[in-house]
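User: I want to check something. If I give you two sequences, will you return the structure for each one separately, not as a complex?

Assistant: Yes, each is folded on its own. Here is the first sequence with its structure:
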Amino acid sequence: RPDQAVFFIAFSILIFVECQHAVGVIGRTTKISCSIKTTFGSDQKIIISAASATKRGETDPVFWFQNDVVKGDHRFKLASKNDPSLLLTDTAVSDEGQYDYTAVTNRGIIKDATFRISVKAKYNPPSISTWPVKIVEGGPADFYCNSSGGYPAGAIHWFDSTNTNWTMSATLEVTEREDQLLEMSSKLTFTSIDSSWEPIRCVVLNSKFVKEGESTIHLMRIDECPCCSSQTSCAIHFYLSLLDSLIFFIFTCSHMNNAEF
């Protein structure tokens, strides 16, 4: 009957699903919190008999269930019976995105619900190095800082002993690994290094510019070499020392022979 159709259309507008933006950690379980909202104030229990979630840009649902039978990506499941909230185990970078959510209940079909999943992973402690390994006071020097295993892209900042930020003089390269996690590599170049700036420190920041790790390095200067400034010079120094010792030995032997006569 026409009046029944009008009543059903009006009724179906009064029930909907509302989901919160979910932020998941790579490799862990993410909860997508959803709730059924009604505006008619009925105390009648709402029973969910089927549901599906489809990622934007894809045609097939990534997950759906009907009468407790789950199909699709088995990492998805309802948090509990008649609760529209979802659980996603072993969260991956590929799960990030916007989803359309549909639920079938005893009060009708709920469409047009959406939720978004964002993912993150903490970067590993950074490693820092220099080239050349031994620095000449006032000479050029490159500093390298690397950190991997994080997501999404962040930043690497550089500081000296006075807490001066040298990041504007550095370059940052971000590459994606096979597991879709990221590696950040920063290079800081000095055309004339001043040893009073040490220790040099690199700080890894996440996408929200929150520090996740840092590393420091003290300069190894050439004048700290116990021998001299290079392997070639060390070799020369060694042979000169050996020659001096040989001359002294010959002189001593000659003096002893002359004394015998």
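And separately, the second sequence with its own structure:
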Amino acid sequence: MLSSLPMYAAGSAANATLWQAVAEQLRHAGLAQVPDTLAQPDDLMAHWTDPGLLLSQTCGYPLTHALAGRVQLVGAFAYAAPGCEGVYYRSQLVCRDADAGQPLEAFRGRVVAYNSEDSQSGYNSLRALLAPWARDGRFFASAVASGSHRSSVELVRSGQADLAAVDCVTWALLARDQPEAVRGLQVCGQTAPAPGLPLVTSIHTSAAVLQALHQALHQVVADPRWAEVRAALLVQDFAELPLSAYGVIPQMAQNAMDAGYPRL
């Protein structure tokens, strides 16, 4: 079996401890072969579709597109970050201090940075927000793929880009843990909400194991023994969600297409 938490604070001690808490509950439930440690996959798509995947976290856009029908939804964490409401989250629109307070229209013809085209927070949500203002399929002069939210933030800070949409949990973690990374930057807007980053398991995971995952996650977010690690990761709660809750994500994509704005 394989498990990972690759989306927030990947490779951190806090994530490792959170997994140890979940693994403890799964073992108490009688599951065998629970991984002792988290995997650190280089190829996330191959990892998420591995038949032995016990638990991982992905983005809502892959869940509803490349991973549709290839994984099972377990649920989502609720996070204590500005922009979150229960298990729903937004992207923070990030600009330099000098541009703070300007309307979104002021960024027309400038440069946007985004992490990847298959990102709900960094691409799809921003494209949906800007679609009504696009002209002949364009809003920005150019769009730069950065590879990560952290890199998008750096591109804006360095002046190589003027705006980026950054997952609000990522932004909150950066502002708290790496304040130098966000110095000189401000939040100048938000995207529409969507369900938070989904926890997933293999399409082959049995109903009994899925139920054990639900129970373990509910226990870990409620147990005071793990309060410190939850605070470190901004985790407040866990909720089971129907897959239909994520339907807002392909709808955002379709709305942008219908408006003639297929690409940032």
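Because they were folded independently, the notes below concern the second chain alone. The longest strand covers residues 71-79. The CA atoms of residues 103 and 214 lie 43 Å apart.
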